[in-house]
Amino acid sequence: MSLDIASLFAEHDGERYELHNRHLNEQMVRVLKVIGYDVGFRRAKGPYLWDRDDERYLDLLSGWGVFALGRNHPGVRDALVSVLDGDLPNLVQMDVSPLAGLLAKRLLGYAPYLDRAFFANSGAEAVEAAIKFARGATGRPGIVFAGHAFHGLTYGGLSITGDDVFRKGFGPLLPGCAEVPFDDLAALERALASRDIAAFIVEPIQGKGVNIPSDGYLKAAADLCRRYGTLLVADEIQTGMGRTGRFLAVEHWGVEPDMVLLAKALSGGHVPVGAVLTRKRIFDKIFDRMDRAVVHGSTFSKNDLAMAAGLATLDAIESERLVQNAAAKGERLMAAFAEMAERYEFLKTVRGKGLMIGVEFGPPRSMSLKAAWTMLEGMNKGLFCQLITVPLFKEHKVLTQVAGHASHVVKLLPPLVISDGDCEWIERAFDAVIADSHRVPGAAWSLGKTLAGHAMKMRAGAA
């Protein structure tokens, strides 16, 4: 008798928070309950989620960018079913899979200046592989990364992640890693001039804060890397697969990195997978003899489910013209937020490309609003954005995220399948919530005081 997973989910749905409190991360459950996100999602389709009361939500988080196709895409699901029904010889290990070869060929077609693909289980594993490949290919120890970068939470990735919130308490980290400010060519050249830097690893658009470089930065960074014999590695784990209105974000600036890292949306959200696309000369330095054929690898990395999901995802992106949809819908939303910024003091700017958008808030001009902002910031830096995200969720059924710890940026990372109707939903919801935040005193500021109180209690508990 086979296990009925859907029935098992339904049967134990009421225990989800108790199970996590007892066996998993109880602090995450506390966070959900404090901000009112403990609604118990039960089903999903495309860009929508439904809670225990069958209320529909618009998901602008996409599982941190994983569900670029929306959830439960039928094409990806059918591909996975066909693998299971096909009784394929999966992960023989002493053989190679045609599905892995086909996915590698398809991905390299999007970056014709690269020649080889390496598959991993996740974005973090792709980062780890890139660090190893860079050091192995160049014989150099150093890795340079940008301030505010996020490259993962494994030790290599953490060592090149520019946020102390993640790094604190886990040292010592990987030696030889140096931070330079993002979008600062002079600082980058000073770091590279030592000629012991194997790679400069950079997100074309930084996920934490949705920070966009100056137009000439990445091109000039590539030139500097070539001058000093350093490899340029583009971390496209979040920006790739059409997210920014191009298949790869580096295409906006005409840059051809030595390595491109992909993950998140690569499998349509169903099966963990990551990829490193690289130049042959780099790959051949690592796998240079038959006795080094397995010098780096990952047990599950080329499994047939992941490879099939990747192929089906590429089919959906192409057939549904999702890169073009991301560009068009992003342009519409950016224009709407720019118009709101002219009307609302707290809304400072909007930035992004495609459907990777950051809406930044900041101190207002008028004295009454400025006093409220200063009070809230004094209690907990970055708390203002929760006055936006929590009402968006509770009152307008829109799921969003703050773009980083103590950040004043609300980040939109919706599925690339969103419609004009979804854009209207987003625009109405943000307009209403931002307008409410300008009413002092008001419900939004009462919420702010409540959240600040919880934050102070949590800090006191940690102390």
UniProtKB/TrEMBL annotation:
- What Gene Ontology molecular function terms does this protein carry? identical protein binding; pyridoxal phosphate binding; transaminase activity
Q: Which InterPro entries match?
A: Aminotrans_3, Aminotrans_3_PPA_site, Class-III_PLP-dep_AT, PyrdxlP-dep_Trfase, PyrdxlP-dep_Trfase_major, PyrdxlP-dep_Trfase_small
Q: Which GO terms describe its biological process?
A: L-arginine biosynthetic process
Taxonomically, the superkingdom here is Bacteria
> Which keywords describe this protein according to UniProt?
Amino-acid biosynthesis, Aminotransferase, Arginine biosynthesis, Pyridoxal phosphate, Transferase
The UniProt entry, under Gene3D superfamilies, shows: Aspartate Aminotransferase, domain 1, Type I PLP-dependent aspartate aminotransferase-like (Major domain)
Q: Which cofactor does it need?
A: pyridoxal 5'-phosphate
What family name appears in the similarity comment? Belongs to the class-III pyridoxal-phosphate-dependent aminotransferase family.
Q: What is this protein called?
A: Aspartate aminotransferase family protein
> Organism, per UniProt?
Salinarimonas soli
What taxonomic ancestry is recorded? Bacteria, Pseudomonadati, Pseudomonadota, Alphaproteobacteria, Hyphomicrobiales
